Amino acid sequence: MAEFIPVEPFDIVIFGGTGDLSKRKLLPALYHRFLDGQIHETCRIIGVARSKRTREQFIELAEEACKAANGEWDSKKWKAFAKLLEYDAMDITTAGKQWDNVKSWLTNDGRPQIFYLATTPLIYVDVCKVLGEEGLNTEHARLVLEKPIGKDLASAEAINAGVGAVFDEKAIYRIDHYLGKETVQNLLVLRFANALFEPVWSRNAIDHVQITVAESIGLEGRADYYDRSGAVRDMIQNHLLQLLCLTAMEPPNSLHADDVRMEKIKVLRALKPFTEETVAQNSVRAQYEAGLVDDEKVPSYLETLSGDAPQSSTETFAALKVEISNGRWAGVPFYLRTGKRMTDRRSSIMIQFKPTPHPLFDSADRVPNRLVMRLQPDEGMKLFMQIKEPGPGGMRLKYLPLDLSYAENFMVRYPDAYERLLMDVVRGNLSLFMSRAEVEAAWRWVDQLLASWEQSGQPLEQYPAGTQGPLQSAMLLDRDGREWWDE
Ligand code: BG6
Question: Whole-prediction pTM value?
Answer without folding.
Answer: 0.95
